């Protein structure tokens, strides 16, 4: 393959995906066994060539992940996140990264820095604040309206804070006019058209969905179910860091035969100002779907740079 940028590789391979490579088993201790695919799912996973009259290609096996679970698919295959306690006392730790604020009930476990996971989320309730100004400034404007909202409803803070970005994806090139648009990350200098910052309810019954009668800027919504590919990272937050990690996910997707982007990216920020920037734990995620019909070509593992995914720093004694 020519020496292309990661995003160019993604655009090319979306039109001609590589042959599937094997998945390692998940290193997270609470992964449940993969369920058996239904006949409908198996048909959806089948890949057939786009050239008329060509020989059909064998179906590509797709892993299944239960709601609230994660499956390791790339990056650092050995790193694990240590979970201790439960309920309000639940913590997660890896190296110097620590999450000591509880996650929503049923939320998928955090992806360790340097690892790439496939994760499935069930619907959850969250309070949203949407804006169009620079996201870094917008997070400051959005924090206190969201904090005051959960305070009025007597809801304890949860982790992570979710940031959804819109306007950072565009259709892949060379797609047939009748095909659904296949998304790829836009140029790295592009800024979001708008964004949404969200605080998560730990349980849906903690408050009703709908507009906040005390603050029209806040809406409480139930999110759709999600299947995402996630890359964990440590140190630094904000749009620039998110786009850097999104570039790594673009490389992984370009080298993989099974998945393609199905929407806009989001970032998860697990820590507040009480943690040093270098120790803050975050994730960038892309919703994905099974890749559609295309011609196969040899998988090239060298297209994913090992140095692109950084391991978590070692714990300080």
Question: What's the SSE blueprint?
Answer:
Blueprint: H1 6-15, H2 39-45, E1 70-75, E2 82-84, E3 91-94, E4 97-99, E5 115-121, E6 125-131, H3 135-152, E7 161-166, E8 169-171, E9 183-185, E10 194-200, E11 210-212, E12 215-222, E13 226-234, H4 239-255, E14 259-261, E15 266-269, E16 281-290
Antiparallel strand pairs: 1-5, 2-3, 3-4, 5-13, 6-10, 6-12, 7-10, 7-15, 8-9, 11-12, 13-16, 14-16, 15-16
Helix pairs in contact: 1-4
Architecture overview:
16% of the residues lie in helices and 27% in strands. The protein has a single domain (6-308), classed as Alpha-Beta Barrel (Multidrug-efflux Transporter 1 Regulator Bmrr, Chain A). Strands 1, 5, 6, 7, 10, 11, 12, 13, 14, 15 and 16 form an eleven-stranded antiparallel sheet that branches. A three-stranded antiparallel sheet has the order 2-3-4, with no helix packed on it. Strands 8-9 form a two-stranded antiparallel sheet. The chain is globular, with a radius of gyration of 20 Å. β11 (210-212) and β12 (215-222) form a beta hairpin. It has helices at residues 6-15, 39-45, 135-152, 239-255; strands spanning 70-75, 82-84, 91-94, 97-99, 115-121, 125-131, 161-166, 169-171, 183-185, 194-200, 210-212, 215-222, 226-234, 259-261, 266-269, 281-290. The protein is α+β, with helices and mostly antiparallel strands and 317 residues long.
Keywords:
eleven-stranded antiparallel β-sheet, alpha+beta, Multidrug-efflux Transporter 1 Regulator Bmrr, Chain A, globular, 27% strand, 4 helices
């Amino acid at each position: 393959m020519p020496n292309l940028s990661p995003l160019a590789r993604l655009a090319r391979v979306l039109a001609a995906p590589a042959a599937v490579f094997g998945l390692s088993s998940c290193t997270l201790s609470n992964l449940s066994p993969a369920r058996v695919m239904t006949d409908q799912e198996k048909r959806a996973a089948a890949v057939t060539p786009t050239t008329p009259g060509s020989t059909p290609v064998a179906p590509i096996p797709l892993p299944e992940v239960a709601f609230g679970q994660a499956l390791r698919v790339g990056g650092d295959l050995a790193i694990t996140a240590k979970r201790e306690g439960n309920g309000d006392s639940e913590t997660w730790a890896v190296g110097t990264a620590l999450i000591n604020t509880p996650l929503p009930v049923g939320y998928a476990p955090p992806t360790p820095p340097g690892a790439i996971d496939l994760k499935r989320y069930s619907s959850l309730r969250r309070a949203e604040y949407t804006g169009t100004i620079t996201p870094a400034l917008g997070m400051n404007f959005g924090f206190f309206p969201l904090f005051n909202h959960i305070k009025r409803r007597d809801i304890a803070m949860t982790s992570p804070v979710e940031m959804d970005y819109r306007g950072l994806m565009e259709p892949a090139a060379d797609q047939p006019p009748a095909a659904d648009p296949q998304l790829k990350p836009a140029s790295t200098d592009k800024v979001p058209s708008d964004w949404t910052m969200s605080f998560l309810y730990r349980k849906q019954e903690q408050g009703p969905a709908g507009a906040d009668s005390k603050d029209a800027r806040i809406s409480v919504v139930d999110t759709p179910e999600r299947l995402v590919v996630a890359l964990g990272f440590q140190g630094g937050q904000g749009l620039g860091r998110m786009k850097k990690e999104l570039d790594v996910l673009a490389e992984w997707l370009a080298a993989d035969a099974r998945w393609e982007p199905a929407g806009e990216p989001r970032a998860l920020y697990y820590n507040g100002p009480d943690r040093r920037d270098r120790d803050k734990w975050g994730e960038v995620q892309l919703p994905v779907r099974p890749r559609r019909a295309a011609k196969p070509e040899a998988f090239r593992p060298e297209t994913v740079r090992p140095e692109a995914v950084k391991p978590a720093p070692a714990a300080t004694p």
